[in-house]
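Renewal narrative, Specific Aim 1. Our central claim is that a sequence can be written position by position from structural information alone. The example that follows is taken directly from our test logs and has not been curated for this report. It begins with the structure tokens describing the chain, in the order in which they were read.
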């Protein structure tokens, strides 16, 4: 049977792991679904031919729109952030709260502008904030008991 003190760090690392994987899955799914379901990949020939180099963002072509929906969207950086969170967690490092706050701010501004907040993003951000809070509380408790 695990004690309350032993369950704390496991619970924190579990929350961080879930948050990291949610971000990886969300970012990957966004890119892959845009490439397949939205047929963005059908514009790859235009992307690699240099047609995007003289793009007029005010008069976006379907190839430009597909590019911004996939490779230049929020999704690839979200995958990188998710993998970084998993990397930190595997080394016993709680991600700093500013990562969760920055992602949450980004999500809420996007929701205000587009009328939708991705649930997986929100869940990951809340898990990260809760894990950071619990890790801070655990550090305070350890400091008090060892003083």
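The sequence written for that structure reads:
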């Amino acid at each position: 049977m695990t004690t309350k003190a032993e369950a704390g760090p496991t619970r924190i690392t579990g929350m961080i792991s879930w948050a990291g994987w949610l971000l990886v899955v969300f970012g990957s799914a966004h890119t892959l679904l845009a490439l397949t379901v939205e047929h963005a990949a059908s514009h790859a020939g235009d992307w690699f031919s240099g047609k995007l180099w003289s793009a007029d963002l005010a008069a976006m072509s379907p190839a430009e729109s597909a590019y911004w929906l996939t490779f230049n969207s929020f999704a690839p950086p979200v995958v990188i952030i998710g993998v970084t969170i998993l990397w930190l967690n595997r080394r016993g490092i709680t991600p700093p709260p500013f990562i969760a706050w920055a992602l949450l701010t980004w999500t809420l501004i996007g929701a205000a502008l587009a009328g939708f907040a991705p649930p997986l993003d929100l869940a990951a951000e809340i898990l990260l904030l809760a894990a950071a809070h619990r890790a801070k509380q655990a550090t305070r408790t350890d400091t008090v008991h060892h003083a």
